[in-house]
Amino acid sequence: MLNYFLKGEKGTRLRFIGMLLSAILVLLSVFTLTQKGLNFGLDFTGGYLTEFTTSQSVELKELQSFIAKNHNGEFELTAQGNSHFQLREAPSASTTANSLDWQSAVTQNDDINAQVLSSAYIGSQVGDELFDQGCLAMFAAMIAVMIYLAVRFEWRLAVGSVVALMHDLILVLGLFSLLQIEFNLTVLASLLAIIGYSLNDSIIVGDRVRELLRVQSNNVLSPATIINNAIKSTLTRTLITSGTTLATVASVWLLAGAPLQGFAIALFTGIVVGTFSSICIAATLPELLGLSAKNYEVKVDAHTQTLLDMP
Prior knowledge:
Largest sheet: 4 strands, antiparallel
Strand content: 5-15%
Radius of gyration: 26 Å
Order of helices and strands: HHEHEHEEHEHHEHHHHH
């Protein structure tokens, strides 16, 4: 690896620097996850979820301060619009008396004049079932991806794609753990979308690498040069696809409001690191594992070779 780094082409050196950076980020993400964990939302922990509207626009901080005076436990208030709010209470804080206190306060205050639209309780048992089913769905998706890659690619390219996929998921989870962004069902759904997007990006690069290796059976070009050429030939398509997708996700992030913010953050991050990993991991790791044009040479037995050599 050091020889590649010191004597390789500029593109090769950049790919190896990127893979080293990815390894460092993965280690930091794992460390953050073990130390801080994820900030699970009510979808998984359970508790009360109350939605209400106000007769006029109220600043979020002012409303939060007013509710805190009439609420004895922990809560999270988010704005869904100028006069539409959502309040989440943890299971320990979501007692009936507590809920009635702050609801009465906001509905009877003339400056706020709130109207409760809905109030629902999510039990912890339901949250546990949702988490288990979500993890099972992700595990099933990963198994399906591994089977697909094993059938489609030579094992070195398949390993590179799987490692790139794991890299993307770990970095997204590490970001959510570091910033303590709420992890709910919509974020879990975005992880499943990231699996598909990252796989698609890796397959585009892997297919091109395989095609160029097949036409280089005479070993004129080195594997590093072939991989660099494959990345160059797919880079424009990758950047255009990623750019248009990022623009759409950014619009959701900025305009869709708080309910989809976690989903948009996860998907935006997954697309960025997925594009990065398809170049620096999915295409570089197979090179370290010894990928070459010889892996795609058609092996001919002695009898067939004799027939081919006959005039």
